[in-house]
C-alpha cells in the first residue's frame, strides 16, 4: 500500500462544487427501468441560475475517515440508500491517480477502494419547497466526486451516473438548455444528458417561480411515476406518440429562439404531464387552485396579447415556474402576480421576492405599501388571493456545475467534519 | 282546414311530463359532428331518482297561440336557439292525428305545421348547480311534445331527437342504466340511447351528490369539448382505444351488479375525462381543491377497506357524485362528508342535506349540533373545510320519463300561460 493511504496520516483532500437545479420544459414522467432510472421518453430542461437556486457540495477524502458519511444542510443523513450507493460505486470505479503536489498527497487509482469520503451538501433554497433539490443534489455529488477522484469521463458520462441518483439530476450537469436522451441500451449507458445550447444563447429569458402554499402532502415523484406507468392508459401514447414530435419542435424552438413555439410547447407539455397524473389510479393531483389561477392568469394574458408573453410549467407540486420572453414582460408579470397574490401582512417584501430583486425595482415596488398601488390585472378580474403564494423567486437560465475555491468548503479542511 | 284548428277556437290541449337527470359513469366528451351532436365514443349513465332531481315540463297547443313560447322556472326564454328549433322541427315532422274525445278536439297530422306551442319547464333543483339540467330539460321537452303530438316513435327514436338538443339528454329518456350508442351514420340516425337495465335491477345503490362551492366561472361543456377535440393529443386515443373496452366492461359490471368493477371503471373514467380536459389548450379545470379532497377521502377509504365502497364521478364542474354500494355504506359516507365539510354555521341542516333525508337519520344526525359529535374520518386526518360544500343531495338510481296528471300542469289550462 502506498504511503499516501496510510491511515495514520492526517491529510484531508477536498473539492467543493456548485450545481444548478433545472426545470423541465418537456417533462420526464415514467421509468422503463426503475433501478437504472431509464425514462420512457426524452426530456428537455432549462438550467436555472445557480446564483439563486443551487446546491453546494464539498466532498473530501482522508485515510483517517472510517466510513462514508454525509451531511445535508448541516444534518447528518444516512448514505444507506441504494441511489447514493450506486453513485458512489459508479464514481469510485472510474477513479484515477491523484497527485496533489502542493499538499504532497498521492492517491493511486487502486487505493480509492480502501478510502472513505465525507460529503457536505447545502441548498441555497428551502429543500421542502419542491424545487428539484434532489436533481441539483445528485448532480453536485457526482460532479464533485468526479473532480476529487480525477474521473476522466466527460460531462455526459457523468450525467449517466447522476441519473442513477435522481433521473432529472442528469440534466443539471450542463447550463443553458439540456436534453436528456432516453437511450436504447438496457444497461442505460446511452441514457444521458447533452447540452442543446448554453445559457448565453437565449439570455433575454427571465424566470419567475411562485412557491405556492399547500396544505396537501404530495405524492413523491418516484411513487407517482411508478403508479402512472402501471395504471395510466394514456401515458404510453404520450411517451411514444406525442413526446418524440414535441422534442424535435422544442429543439427547433430553442435553436431559433422562437418564444411563441417555446411557450406553446412548454405549457401544453406541462399540462399533459399533469393530465397523465390525473389518469393514474388513484389519481395524482400536483396542482391546486392557486396553480390553476396562475395558469388562468397567464393564459388570458397571452390570449389578449395575441402571442405568448409567458410560458408556465409545473413539476410534481403546486409551484409555478414562469418563463417570460424578456425583462419587460417579466416586470409586468411580477406586477400582475403581486397584485393577485399579495403577501400576508406580516411578510416583508425582502423575504417575499427572492433572487434577482432588481425586477422588483423595475416594477416600481420599493416598499410593501407599493404592492397596494398596483393596478388590478384584467385577466383575473381584480380578484386577490392573499397568502396563497408563499414567496416568489426571480431568476434566469444559468450555467452548469463549477468547482468553487477553497474558502467555500463546507467541511473543515483539517478534520473533514462540518464547519 | 279542419274545424279543430280554427284560430277562433279557444281550446288548449296540454301534456305535463317529468324527466330525470342522469350522471355518466363512462363519460361523453367530444363531438364528431357539432351540429347533429354525434359523440366520439359511447357513454353509459345512471338515471337519478326524479323525486330528487328532475325537470317537469308542460307542453300545450292551441289555435289561439300566435307563436312558439317557452318559460323556464317562470322566466320566459328565447326559443330562437338552433337546438330548440331542431327538437321542435324533428318532433313536429313526426306528429300524428290527435283526437281528444273528452274535450272534443281533433288535430290532423297535417295541421301541426300551422299550430304553435307553449312550453313551461321547471327544475326541482338549482339550474346553476351544474347538475345536468339541460339533459333533463331537453329530454322532457322532447318526451312531452312526443306525447302531445301523438308521435309513434319509440323511446330510442325520441332519444335521437333529444340528443340534438343536448347530447346527454338522450340518456334521460330511460330509467336505470342507459347506454348512448355513438352510432356510425353521418346523419346520426343510429346515435341513440338504449336501456341496459332498469332501476330495480340494482336497487341497493345509494347516490350522494356534493354541490361544491366555487369561485370560478366554468367553461361550458359545449366550448370545452370543442377545444378538447381540436387541441388534445390524448382525446382520440381515449375515444378509440380506451373507451370501447371500458364500455364492454361497464356493461358486464352492471349486468352482474359487480360493484368493485363498477366503481373502478366509474372513477378511472371520470379521472380520464378530466385528464383530457387538462390536456386541452388552454387547459380546462373543472375540479377544484374541494373536488380533489373528496376524491382523496373516497380513495383512501376504498383502499383501507380493501375493496371499493364508493365510486365517484365528476361532470363539467366541481360537484362530486358519489355512488355507495349500499345504504349502510352511504350512511358512513355521509358521516365522513359532514365531518369534513360541515355547513357554515348559518346553514340549517334541512337545507344542507336535501333529497332522501332518511339517510341523515340513519347517520344519527337529527340536529345541527349532532354534526359536531361525528368522529373524525381517518382518511383525511380529521381536517375540516367548513363551507366548502354548499349542500348535499341524497338520492338513488331512478325511473325514466313519465306523464303526470292534469293537476300538475305548469300552464293555465284555459289560457296556456304560466300559472
UniProtKB/TrEMBL annotation, chains A, B:
Gene3D superfamilies documented for this protein: 3.30.230.10, GHMP kinase, C-terminal domain
Entry keyword Lipid biosynthesis: yes
Domain Diphosphomevalonate decarboxylase-like N-terminal: 20-193
Molecular function (Gene Ontology), one example: ATP binding
Alphabetized SUPFAM superfamilies for the sequence: GHMP Kinase, C-terminal domain, Ribosomal protein S5 domain 2-like
Reactions accelerated catalytically: (R)-5-diphosphomevalonate + ATP = isopentenyl diphosphate + ADP + phosphate + CO2
Domain Mvd1 C-terminal: 207-403
Protein location: Peroxisome
Swiss-Prot/TrEMBL keywords: ATP-binding, Lipid biosynthesis, Lipid metabolism, Lyase, Nucleotide-binding, Peroxisome, Steroid biosynthesis, Steroid metabolism, Sterol biosynthesis, Sterol metabolism
Keyword Acyltransferase: no
Pfam family of the protein (one): MDD_C
GO biological process: isopentenyl diphosphate biosynthetic process, mevalonate pathway; sterol biosynthetic process
Enzyme Commission code(s) on record: 4.1.1.33
A cellular component term, taken from the record's GO annotations: cytosol
Functional description taken from the UniProt entry: Performs the first committed step in the biosynthesis of isoprene-containing compounds such as sterols and terpenoids.
NCBIfam families linked: mevDPdecarb (TIGR01240)
PANTHER family for this protein: DIPHOSPHOMEVALONATE DECARBOXYLASE
Sequence similarity: Belongs to the diphosphomevalonate decarboxylase family.
Name of the protein: Diphosphomevalonate decarboxylase
Native organism: Rosa chinensis
